[in-house]
Amino acid sequence: MPPADAADRSRPALRLGVLDESELVVAGLDGMLRPHRERVELSVLEATDSTTGLDVVLCDPFRNGGDPHDHISRVAALGPARVLVYTWNTRAANTRTFAAAGAHAVIDKTAPGIELIEVVEAVGRGEQVAPTPPTGTIALSLRESEVLTLLCRGQSNQEIADTLYVSINSVKTYVRQIYRKLGVSRRTQAVAWANRHGHPG
């Protein structure tokens, strides 16, 4: 029987696609994964490309706006590849609802290459993997994250209520919760925090 490392080398590389991403992210992924091509082969896909022939596909459901759950469902429908959410915004990623939409795991874009590979391999085996948020992140709910995004766009409480189809009192509650979690007391401070931490705005 061949040794374990020889068996690993003989195993075909996992076929990984990255869907509709920026040139910067694609270049970073290629640089991280290039030394590990015996384990993972990277392909770059456009938004509507089929994922047939791939094992796992990376997507960021927050990248272009819209409902992130709908985005995940559309990606899952593109082909048989398992969906791995790859985003800066892991604090807004609800593992349970994302799994219901078709995602197998969530991983932060700040994750080192070897951690990404291990998660990709786990997803390739069909495992559901809980997200590991980076140290120091704030656990905002999906709705709180949406409200913070709209705050960053300069919307008033009434405008946020109209955008999200909720009452203005609900918006005020979300804003208070955001302030408490971020440790701030004013809108400008919350926006400054979001800018420092790469929150989509």
What's the short version?
The chain is of the alpha/beta class and 201 residues long.
List keywords for this structure.
single chain, 201 residues, alpha/beta, five-stranded parallel sheet, 9 helices, disordered N terminus
Structure commentary:
The protein has 201 residues and is α/β, with parallel strands linked by helices. The protein is built from nine helices and five strands. A five-stranded parallel sheet has the order 2-1-3-4-5, sandwiched between helices. α6 crosses α8, α6 crosses α9 and α7 crosses α8. The longest helix is centred in the C-terminal third of the chain and has 15 residues. The N terminus is likely disordered.
- Terminal CA distance reads 56 Å
Estimated helix fraction? 40-55%
Cross-sheet strand order for the largest sheet: 2-1-3-4-5
Q: Which stretches are poorly predicted, pLDDT < 50 over at least 5 residues?
A: 1-9
Mean pLDDT over all positions: 84
Radius of gyration: 19 Å
Number of strands: 5
Main β-sheet, in a few words? 5 strands, parallel
Task: Give the SSE map.
Elements: H1 4-10, E1 14-19, H2 23-33, E2 40-45, E3 56-59, H3 68-76, E4 82-87, H4 95-101, E5 103-108, H5 113-124, H6 142-152, H7 157-164, H8 168-182, H9 187-196
Parallel strand pairs: 1-2, 1-3, 3-4, 4-5
Helix pairs in contact: 6-8, 6-9, 7-8
